[in-house]
Write a structure and sequence with these properties.
It is a single chain. The chain is α/β, with parallel strands linked by helices. It has eleven helices and ten strands. Helix content is 43%, strand content 19%. Strand 6 and strand 7 form a beta hairpin. The protein starts with 10 loop residues before the first strand and ends in a 20-residue tail after the last helix. The structure holds 5'-O-[(R)-(carboxyoxy)(hydroxy)phosphoryl]adenosine (KG4) and zinc ion.
Length: 345
Amino acid sequence: MMEEKQTKDVFILAIESSCDETAAAVVKNGREVLSNVISSQIDLHTLYGGVVPEIASRKHVEKINQVIQAALDEAGMTLDDMTAIGVTYGPGLVGALLVGVSAAKAIAYAKKLPLVGVHHIEGHVCANFIAHPDLEPPFLCLIVSGGHTHLVMMEDYGEFSIIGKTRDDAAGEAFDKVARAVGLGYPGGPKVDKEAKLGNPNAIAFPRAHVEGAPYDFSFSGLKSATLNYINHAAMMGQEINRPDLVASFQNAVVDALVSRAVAAAKEYGVDKVVMAGGVAANSALRAKLSEECEKNGLKSYYPSPILCTDNAAMIGAAAYYEYCKGVRSGWDLNAVPNLKLGER
Ligand code: KG4
Ligand code: ZN
């Protein structure tokens, strides 16, 4: 329940710079995106096979003011029209986060606007409020990103309990490592997704790990090792691997692990909505399987459009709105928190 009933429209200028996208957006009342500007650094980092933190920070410094101005222009508004400033303060790369946090603090201070620090992963969850105007808590949420794999029970806006998480690698991390091992390079997830469409997902029977006594926890390190062993074994034997079959089978094992737990948890917790969030939620096989299994089990499935799955500032604006309505305000001492845990504020 919202603690403060808003009588006037709330316009949030949101800023996101936790990794390799410099992004700013204007969001009205948490759900309506008036602009969503993303300046991606992917081409730059591709040269190095992954995100180089120092380069990311420098690029954010170069781009941040232009991106913020572009977001305001696209919305046809100025800073004087804003109600509050929302910004990602963690988790992420410390130098990258600091650029967004500093810009947000400077604007908020100069314009005497409230400042709302947002947890990046909570932002990913809130991307669904933009994508699905009618979606409201409670629901079960499967968070699958580069650094997180969590199952959470979203009881209300900004209020949730963690019911499962990965014991080792995050799903996105597993995608990225396997992509590198088979020579698909960076960014791994989308490349595996594309190549897997050409392969047979049942060609190789990779393991589906279960964590003893924790039915909703995940473990992907065994699957990652099994995939790498398969590649090394083939190389030792001088055998060619069928790359599409290999990545399709790997992807299938990840998708199985994610979807089976999400559906089982929704049933146990008595909710009929399963929501997916984070970069890996853009995966086409995962989206298809979640929809199919939810339908079979009388559940409704939700996920954002691919552009709202990857890092963007509109999702931060949505999260900031619900925090703002609850009266959450950050101080001028707001700092970047690179290891901010889910559930920590
Ligand atoms: O949510 P995100 O920006 O990461 C964090 O906030 O931590 O997502 C990035 C992750 C990367 O690991 C990337 O490879 C993965 O999402 N990803 C995908 C796809 N698109 C992005 N993984 C699988 N299939 C995709 N289509
Ligand atoms: Zn992210």
